[in-house]
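dude i think i finally got it to work??
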Amino acid sequence: MAQAQKPNLHSLDPVWERIRHEAEAALDAEPLLGGMFHSSVLHHKTLEQALAFRLSQKLSTAELSEQILREIMDAAHAADPTLGEAARADIVATFERDPACNRFLKPLLYFKGFQAVQAHRISHWLCREGRADFASLIQMRVSECFGVDIHPGARVGRGIMIDHAHSIVIGETAVVGDNVSMLHSVTLGGTGKEDGDRHPKIGNGVLIGAGAKVLGNIHVGDCARIAAGSVVLEDVPARKTVAGVPARIVGEAGCAQPSLTMDQLFRGEI
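look at this
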């Protein structure tokens, strides 16, 4: 009787399988970058291993070696499989929502928004484990390398797309739901020196435009839209569009899930 054939591990992970195929195609098209494609993708068996390698390369310093970072990230992924699941959701979200992303490979190799969020997931895991100094050091390096400052205490959902990602700030007690899209220069911050729970809570499916500032312990409802350049100081109801300084409700969200369509035009849906 023939022995049952072992399943191909890659076939059980379609996101990782696609990334590997894209890396092989990229290698054929640009052999001068073969070292990067091999070391960052093709050398690894899993997306988690590739993420640990890529992020440790980017974030290592004389104070924090690449080897130590890789060991920490490998340990985090082994202890919490949801980190890898969230990374896959973020890759798919970026591919589906960002017209500049035509391959799954791109976020892993080139997109600092994706990389910053994955590094934050590691710092948040360290924070939960009581390793505050290590978490803060990773936060500092992410800010220095990517221009994205997310406090380790902030809770970030899955299916996150941060386009361009320059000058993103997310405070300690902020919560970002699932399937959220935001553009560059967004701040989820406090309003002063108060302690405790002081940062915004962003619902699922929310779209936050470039340069928007959401300040204080306020709630933004599911599938709401925040217009570019707005300053939001009060709760935003679900499925509404707010705009202005200070922001006010100007209409409906315009669609079921604004973060997926990325439609930022206001058509007067009062």
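The first strand starts at residue 148 and ends at 150.
im so relieved honestly
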